[in-house]
Structure formats: C-alpha cells, structure tokens
Design brief:
By secondary structure, this protein is an alpha+beta fold. Helices cover 47% and strands 15% of the residues. The chain contains 8 helices and 6 strands. The protein has helices at 7-15, 79-90, 95-102, 106-114, 118-135, 137-142, 149-168, 174-181; strands at residues 2-4, 29-34, 38-41, 47-50, 53-57, 63-68. The protein has a 4-stranded mixed β-sheet with strand order 1-6-5-2. Strands 3-4 form a two-stranded antiparallel ribbon. A hairpin with a 5-residue loop joins strand 5 and strand 6. Helix 2 (79-90) packs across helix 3. Residues 21-112 form the DUF6431 domain. It holds the Pfam family DUF6431. This is DUF6431 domain-containing protein.
Length: 191
C-alpha cells in the first residue's frame, strides 16, 4: 500500500511517471485499474465514496493500492474520525463516553482502542518525532513526555502537521497529514 496526501496528487505523480515501487525501489509504477469502491464515514454523518487507484511496477510486476492519507485501510471511518477518538482517549475518556460523543458503535470504538498496544504508540511517537525534527527541531525540544504515551504521540504528530502547514502552506486537514506521517496506520494492524 502506498499512502498519498491526496488521490489527485497521486494521479498527477502517476501520470508523470514519478511514483516508484516501494518493494524493488527501482521500478516505475503505472496505472493498473482501481481497487474496490468504498464508502467511508466522516464527521457529522457525512460519507465519502472512494475508489483507490491500483498500480503495477514495470520492473518487478508487484501491484499496489494508492490510498489517500485521509483514509485508513480496512476501516469504515476516516483518519479524522479515528484520530478524534484517539484524542478523546488521550484526554481520559473511556470507550463508552467516546462512543456516545462521536455517535459510533460501542464495539467499533472498543476495537479501535484495543489496537493501540504500547509498541504501536512508540511507533506513532517515532513517526511524529522524525517529521517534527525535519520541520522544526526547536518545537521538538519543548514537547515533554507527561506520562501519557498516546497523548505524547498525538502531540508530536499534531505539532508536525502544524509546522508542515505553516512552513509549506499545505491546505490539507491536520488529520490527513497525520495519516500521511503514519503511512495509513494510525491504528496497529490486526493480529
């Protein structure tokens, strides 16, 4: 899977021949149809229907799905919805309160929260650290760990999104940028 900031940007890069295969690191990717059409829930009962682009490497023949960063693979909710639930959890709410606040099924919210083992929170913090150090090292030194690893990881990711927006004028939503930094893995994969 390849995570792109937007589907439109991925199409432009694909048409220009600038996307490279993440497996062989050498081959140029070309269009290879589309993935399955999906309808994903956003905030306020809005829905987004997407059909991700499939690509194929001209060198190793591997196929890949190009996923917009605003979406999470194998989830029926956008990165912003899942991220907001994680933010509520970092601020001390439990799965019942989050479910009631966000209007999502209790089992869905519980499943999201179970997909945050300590190793995955470390990975989120590392992704935020790498991005923030590249953008603004001074901000990184001011963010201190306060005993809540999820809160710390989300703070690092949010600070990186702020500086990406501030420095480069990106107009994508912060959660979309965070989805890009985490490579579409805001939650740990199942298993």
């Amino acid at each position: 899977m390849i995570v792109a900031r937007t589907g439109e940007l991925a199409e432009e890069l694909l048409a220009a021949g600038e996307l490279r295969c993440p497996l062989c690191r050498d081959g140029q990717l070309s269009s290879w149809g589309y993935g399955r059409r999906r309808t994903v829930r956003d905030h306020d009962d809005a829905t987004i229907t997407v059909r991700p682009r499939r690509t194929r490497c001209r060198s190793c023949s591997a196929t890949h799905i190009v996923m917009p960063a605003a979406l999470q693979p194998r989830h029926a909710d956008t990165t912003a919805v899942i991220g907001t639930a994680l933010l509520h959890r970092a601020n001390g709410l439990g799965h019942r309160s989050i479910s009631a606040t966000m209007g999502r099924p209790l089992s869905t919210v519980r499943r999201w929260l179970r997909r945050l083992p300590p190793a995955h929170m470390d990975r989120l913090a590392r992704a935020g650290t790498e991005q923030l150090l590249a953008l603004d090292p001074d901000t990184f030194t001011t963010l201190r760990y306060q005993g809540n690893m999820l809160h710390h990881a989300l703070s690092l990711l949010a600070a990186a999104a702020y500086w990406d927006h501030h420095r480069y004028g990106l107009d994508e939503a912060p959660w979309t940028l965070i989805g890009m930094y985490t490579r579409g893995r805001l939650l740990a994969p199942p298993g």
